[in-house]
Amino acid sequence: MVSKMTDKKRKLFFGAISWRSLTVFLLLLVSVLLFAPNLKVENHLTNFFPNDNSSPQNQIFLKTLAKLLQNSSFDQPVLLSVTANADEESLAALSKSLKAILENAKVVKKVTNANPNIFRIEHQLNSYRYLLTDFRAHDISEAIETLWSAWQLGVVLDKKDSLSDPTNQWLHYLKGSFFASRLPTKDGVWLVPQTKGRDNAQALMLIELNHEAVFPIVSIEDVVETFENAHKSQQVKVRYSSASTIAYQARKQIQTQVTVLSAAASFIVLAFLFWVFRKPVWVLFSFVPLVAASWLGALAVYMLFGSIEAITLALGIVLIGVSVDYPIHVFSATLKTPSQKEQVWRVVRLGGITSAFGFLVLVVLGIEGFKQIAVFATVGLLSALMMSRMLMLDMTSALSNHEDHTLLTGDKLQTETSKNNEYQLRFVWVGLLMLLIVFLWRSPVSWQDDLASLSPVPASLLKQDHELRILFSQPESTQFLMLQASSVEDLLQKEEALTHQLQLLKHQGIIKQSLSLSNWLPSQKLQEQRMQALPSRAELDQLIAHQHSPLNSKVLKPFIDAVENTKQLPLLTLEMFKEKAVDWQKRLLPLLVTHDELSKSEWTGKVLLTGISSGAAMEAWSKQNQVLYFNQRAFVADAVQTLRGQLLNLSSAVLGVFALLLLWQQRSVMQAIDILIPVTLGVLITFICLNVWAGQLSIFHLLASLLLIAIGIDYSLFVQAASVKNKEYDSAHQAAKEILHSVPIAMATTVVSFGLLLFTQIPILVAIGQTIVLGVPLVYLFSRLYHRF
């Protein structure tokens, strides 16, 4: 007897694995081995912005935002801070120690942890000082007398440099070109002292990476970890941030959290299904559609687009709660009511096709990122559907001798369901639906329209970057003026023409500071004018003779030679300036000027601004002076609002298409309405509750509503199929109940898997998790209430 039972179980296990299934599994494995190593993950947020062609200005702003968000658009230095449970002298020593360690790392090009001595600096640009500044010959006599007075008082730091530059042109240039505030110093290093709002003093440093090295961020991370472990007794904590480090840390956190949550969700759902089905082989098989859906969706995106966005890949965990529903429904029907499996399959198939179509319509938005989501979800869901069907057929051939029930036909189902939904009750439900629509119209949902609503970067990383930028007095790159020109020379002349207007803005208190490329590099036209205005040797001798100090022409010969040598210099070009620029200029230069590589002629210059007191005043000023004013917050808000409107219209269109599909399948207008009403009610109440729970909603709450609609239609279809209450069909009624048996199981797995998203720090996944965890039970509840089953 035991032997027969063992043979039966063995047959049940191996009988479900057909050659067809083995072939499909083998092909999937081969595709993973071939393509998985080459799968390229990127993070371009502007791929999720509307393609706004309404004006050339918006197109320029979108390109500008894309360059600002591209991690490789320019090499930003890494901002680093060190805190410790130690006094300021010990903290300064730790800063020097860490600098020495970093300088020995091959991936590091340069480490700076103190202000340069601008009074004694020697630099290649020094020889151009009389072209870089507004040198006035008539001030020479007074400047020499001032120098002699300082000489007598003993405050001249370097007499040689002073004699070659008595008017301090190089010092004036350096002071004017240093845009950020100089950082406080202690014991020769940057050290921000402890204040009321800051718990610990912080030592600061800038790290320039050698980006030709392999994995520079990983190497920095290893150095920092080793340094912290070596000074555990002092509780040393090192924080660092830059565009490249944020990208790396965000990708690492996303991959780690998604991996952990996927594993946790899989384990919990696996355990739950085993508890329900008590058949390990079918529980394991229920995850085959999920794995196939995630991989084939990612592969399809890679084949069509060449890479996959991180946001799109994050939907892999989302598919756990959806793809696993299909095998649950068909396995439950095959194991409990084999005679009903085809009817259940028809319901599952309709729900799967509508779900896939719901995501496919995202293609009509014409937005690159949403096209990827559409392809990923559509291919994934259809793959899960086909894999579920294949496994169901295998299971059918492996199972036999199950209790059978009278097959409930579509005609009887439709007839009995129609009797249960009286027209009067329908009017009540429609009235409730209209009240909810009016309520949302009078009390609209509060939306989050900033860049953070689109960013997959955890809030903790953005907060850390913001705090470090404040410590370093780094200029924010979210608001600036933009000028376009056909050449660098044309651009510099346009920027020079704005100098007077920008000074007026400072006097009016609208801005505190501005910086453009022309502040560092004069146009060649202006350089030539300054060169022509330089006095001759004889004129310099005469001017020196008119002053009353012992500093005569012989003593000041280095100065006279420097002016004469300036006349022989070639005019400074942008390429020459890039080679000769001071360190802080090189760091900001990519922000100040960009070149369109495609057109080979379009140059864009930016005028960085700080302390803007009125965005409206800047907007009015920019229009008056025909200058583009880029306000990232306002631009992103407008783009997100446009996208939200498109998604709202798309959601309405999806409901309409679903209605047509249901009408075609059900062959009855009322049947289609009966399926959609509870789903629509559940979605609307979900948004009302989310507005209270989350405060502000993002477009990803709205995007998740498409998924909620698709899941809700599945539930409504099953509940409607089980809502037969005529005593004449008791046997059929019992079979209908068996059909509904899988829905609570599927709902539980969905809520569990999506509920884990609430524990991430990734705003996008949290938004999706909130929508599904709250919405799925509501949709199911309204489906049961509406059909009174």
| Number of β-strand runs | 13
- CA radius of gyration is 35 Å
Describe the biggest sheet?
6 strands, antiparallel
SS-derived structural category: alpha+beta
Spans where pLDDT lies below 50 across 5 or more residues: 1-15, 400-421, 725-733
The percent of residues in helical segments reads: 55-70%
Number of helices: 34
- Return the average pLDDT rounded to an integer: 76
State the end-to-end distance.
43 Å
Binned strand content: 5-15%
Shape: elongated
Architecture blueprint of SSEs:
Blueprint: H1 2-15, H2 19-35, E1 41-42, H3 56-69, E2 78-83, H4 88-103, E3 108-112, H5 129-132, H6 140-153, H7 159-164, H8 169-177, E4 185-186, E5 189-192, E6 202-209, H9 216-230, E7 237-241, H10 243-277, H11 280-285, H12 288-305, E8 308-309, H13 310-318, H14 320-323, H15 325-336, H16 341-360, H17 368-398, H18 410-420, H19 423-442, H20 459-471, E9 479-485, H21 488-497, H22 499-507, E10 513-515, H23 524-533, H24 537-545, H25 557-566, H26 574-580, H27 583-592, E11 593-595, E12 603-610, H28 615-624, E13 628-631, H29 632-666, H30 669-693, H31 699-721, H32 730-740, H33 742-755, H34 763-787
Parallel strand pairs: 1-8
Antiparallel strand pairs: 2-6, 2-7, 3-6, 4-5, 5-6, 9-12, 9-13, 10-12, 11-12
Helix pairs in contact: 1-17, 10-33, 12-13, 12-17, 13-17, 13-34, 15-16, 15-17, 15-33, 16-17, 16-29, 16-31, 19-30, 29-30, 29-31, 30-31, 30-34, 31-34, 33-34
